Amino acid sequence: MCGDRVDDYGTVGQRLGDGRMFWYENGGNWFIIASMDMIAKLWHRFLDLYVTFAYFRQVTVVNEERLPAEGSVIYLGLHRNGALDGAPYRAKLPGAKILIAAQLRKSLVGRLFFSGIEVVRAKDGGDRSGNEAALAECVAVLKGGGKLLLFPEGTSTLGPRHLPFKSGAMRILLAALAERPDVKVVPVGIRYEGATRWQRNVELVVGEWMETGLPAEGTEEEKVDILMERMEASLLAVGINVVDDEYQAMIETIAYVATLGTERGYFESLKALEKEVPAPILAAWQDLQAEREGRRLLFHQGAPLFPMGPRVLYLGLWLLLTPIILVAGLLNVLPLLAGYWLAEKMPDDRNVVSLWRAMGGCGLFLVQAPAVLLGTALMGVWWWGIVYVVISLVGMKLYYRWWKLTVAVHNGFRYPGLREKGLAFREVVLANLKKKD
Is 0.85 surpassed by the pTM of this model? Predict the structure, then answer.
């Protein structure tokens, strides 16, 4: 951490508004002074990292080498899971300012959770007179060598296709190119293993940089149209667009199965199935679906998992992890119930289920954990607070593995005759995806 050395407190006080930190000396002692703007930035940076850790099992960046090391950058992000998308995006794209809907920051809770350049969307109603200033701020960020994260769809969906792209992002780019022809435009897609579930894997997919060169002749609208065509092609490459929800659900399960015990990526497998499912996989899928009738199978990401190795080994691992999960759950029953209740009662669509679950569960844990640490410290038993935090975090990160074991052990012992068919389906998937590769 660094800052400018200043001679007296008055000088510092006059410079707090620029969002920087300063060193301050008083009697030979040095202090750090930060503006409220800097404190807010640090808070929201922490929150992005915390939510990414606490709500998701793992966030992986595919093609990370394509991320620019420096310079002005526009990240064009596909928008799927409501405002929660911002956490993994910003955690993995540090320094990028995000253009957000002003309605997210209307309440105190919203201002605590969300930050960015505010714009009023047409569908939200309200005064949109400030939008021009917000877009001008975006252009200024790029002219100053900064980074922007923009969602060209303007809103989110977990549906089978992207929503129509708006022209705002390309108008910002066109304005910035007048002074910064070196602006880089990087498309980024996002895919969730289970978009409405806690502790699931996420992949950010970085695409090839978009071409920004334009002909010298032509009107502004003609240039925007050229950029719009390029943007759509770039985002199609990092997204999945299929015919309907049913097809999407099917290939999400098949793609997940392809990742089990392999190095295959989730998005990689989805992309291979985007246009069509190979006939052998489809036949094996339909055969497996027929076996579900009349049976109380458990599923993980839509797949009826079975032990790949000895059932006794899986049972032993399950018995080893279960006490940890139970203790962690009992210690955090309030955050778990808050997340569950909000996810059940508040969403008006699937794309905000996880947002409410995270705000309730992760938000309450962020209050409860420090309270327990402080309370146990005041009572002179601080180590119990440490034990609580450790068990909670270990349980949190083991939950994904434990639930997969629960599904596999239940299915393997209750329906042992289906194990071979379930494992054979995985082999068919892998063999046929390898052929497509």
Answer: yes
